[in-house]
Write a structure and sequence with these properties.
Order of helices and strands: EEE
Strand content: 25-35%
Number of helices: 0
Shape: elongated
Mean pLDDT: 85
Structural class: mainly beta
Helix content: under 10%
């Protein structure tokens, strides 16, 4: 959703992966850091130049065998 100022109306922790929460442009990713719950990716928007971070959680889903 875009508000009347042209900014997409996301709250922290929401939005779409790879999409700028300010203008809706595509993101370029710089570095990734691992934390205790997953990964944090730094990004820069290709269109408006804003910067931020995307977070991803990694969790155990089970054992698999042949």
């Amino acid at each position: 959703m875009i508000d009347d100022k042209g900014q997409i109306d996301y709250e922290d922790g929401t939005g779409e992966p790879g999409v700028c929460p300010y203008c809706g442009g595509l993101l370029s990713f710089d570095d990734a850091k691992k934390d205790e719950e997953g990964f944090i990716f730094s990004w820069t928007c290709n269109d408006c130049g804003k910067q931020g971070k995307e977070t991803y959680e990694v969790f155990f889903t089970g054992h698999y065998h042949k």
